[in-house]
Amino acid sequence: MTDSTAPHRQDGPDWWRQAAVYQIYPRSFADADGDGLGDIAGAASRMSYLSELGVDAVWLSPFYPSALADGGYDVADYRNVDPRLGTLDDFDAMVAEAHRFSIKVIVDIVPNHTSDDHEWFQAALRAGPGSPERERYVFRQGKGQDGELPPTDWQSMFGGPAWSRLPDGWWYLHLFAPEQPDLNWDHPDVHADFKKTLRFWSDRGVDGFRIDVANALTKDLTEPLRDVGGISIEEQMATVEDGQHPFLDRDEVHEIYREWREVFNEYDPPRVGVAEAWVKKERLVRYASPEGLGQAFNFDYLKTGWSAPELRSVIDVSLRTARAAGASATWVLSNHDVIRHASRFALAEDADPEAWLLSGGTQPVADRERGLRRARAATMLELALPGSAYMYQGEELGLPEAAELAEGDLQDPVWERSSHTRKGRDGCRVPLPWTREGESFGFGGTPWLPQPSYFGELSVEAQEGDETSTLELYREALRLRHKLVGTDESLEWIGSQETEEAGVLHFVRPDGWHCVTNFSSETKPLPAGEVLLSSGPLGDEGLPGETTVWLRDGAEG
Ligand code: GLC
Asked: In 10 A of CB 166, how many CB atoms?
């Protein structure tokens, strides 16, 4: 039975094209059993909240059995639920509850690496050098007189070498933490097992998949392995472009996604995929192709600062790229890996320009009020763009990055592996506040990461019914978006380069839905039209600084 109060949501095979997708980080969303760790039953219990918020789909970050060396992205068993988070029955009940509200469910697939607890890696360790069990991973002998040096100069994403040495003298590859050994995608078992996993979840009613590190699965493992000059993966990701790099964005990775597309198409409606691929935008189109995963995250939007001309150019390129792929565009402002946008938009002048990724709470935040004002304006702009909007839990409450986490509380491997130079991503993973009071503000038991004391004021309870709150802004924006979005994915810019340089972006969607953002801090003229919603108070003077307004019709003149 479908809940009759649920907003109209797209059904049919194209439901994903302009979906508003809400990312649940399960361990921090809602804790039903009170052990301080969010769980699947907790997520199920909040589907009515998400329906009222107006989302079309949820994406769950990994909830699989895991030793949590990397927040669950170290998967020990791809076809099960971590017992601390529930059971497969709980999962089925959660999917049924989501579907009751017409909310689709997307799960995270982590195919680049397993956990070192995975039965395959354990078998490989036991079986020893040269065994067939080791072929499923990347084991090599080291360089130097006694093999005491890593086989190549490849660096791990979290800092330090991408190779670790075993007591038997052999090295194994891990582009992330040592507890995340990379799989060998030249091995047929790996292909077969992931297809089995995709079918396993699809058979349980899962509607789609988010593919973790989709650009790194295939590697050039011909001997001798090639060095890359010892530069960091982040730097390489920004420059690699010919499909020939030893382990990033290789052309043949798309053969895997063509196989997966065949699996997706066994279902009705076909399952959907979205690639997490930090690659050059010209190459992103391959991941989003309808013969491949179908959609890819667009991180250029997230990486762009508070600048009208820069954002306009990113929007144009993103729409063009998505169209060329036959996909719809995607927009992301926050996720579990980056500084929450309510803080990112208010970083001090001297903050690291690369602060959007991994550095977390080490970056100085200048002005929290300004950050929230800009975040609300940026969200309304995002929700008016054609394509899918991926939102991260807690952004609807305007949560800032929890920068006050003490060093002793940090859990992210980035902290240790960067020799305490990068605090990591815990600041955006702090459990959500649901109520004003109580030990964990209604989250559950003693939270696995401590919540700052001001979280109570930002809780769902505190914001509900207050029409000036960020929660009510999201609800109204998503309600209007459902009404206005249609199926036409076009956008027309209004105004000139001059208005952009003055800090104003104005575009119109079909049926006269206008979106105007004033990036400057001065008031600008408010175009004509019926005001549908604004990210902040409008006053009589015009469009205040750092504010977005949606208007209907009559704005052209
Ligand atoms: C992705 C995830 C991130 C994780 C990494 C390794 O980038 O989003 O959280 O640490 O992959 O799996």
From this structure: 13
Report CA(382)–ligand 1 centroid distance (Å).
24
Q: How far is the CA of 73 from the centre of ligand 1 (A)?
A: 6
The predicted pLDDT at position 351 comes to 72
Helix 253-264 and helix 188-203: axis angle, to 10°?
30
- pTM confidence score: 0.96
**Long-range contacts of residues 529-537, Cβ cutoff 8 Å, at least 24 apart:** 529/553, 529/554, 529/555, 530/554, 532/480, 533/380, 533/473, 533/476, 533/477, 533/480, 534/380, 535/373, 535/376, 535/377, 535/379, 535/380, 535/473, 536/373, 536/376, 536/377, 537/468
Q: What is d(CA 477, CA 471) in angstroms, rounded to the nearest whole number?
A: 10
Closest CA to 299 of 344, 361, 257, 266: 344
315-364 tens-digit pLDDT: 999 999 999 999 999 999 999 999 999 998 887 766 765 666 666 556 66
Please tell me the distance from the alpha carbon of residue 296 to that of residue 390, in angstroms, as a whole number. Answer: 11
Does residue 73 have its Cβ closer than 6 Å to ligand 1? yes
Any catalytic annotation for residue 266?
yes
Residue pair 43/24 in contact (Cβ under 8 Å)? The answer is yes
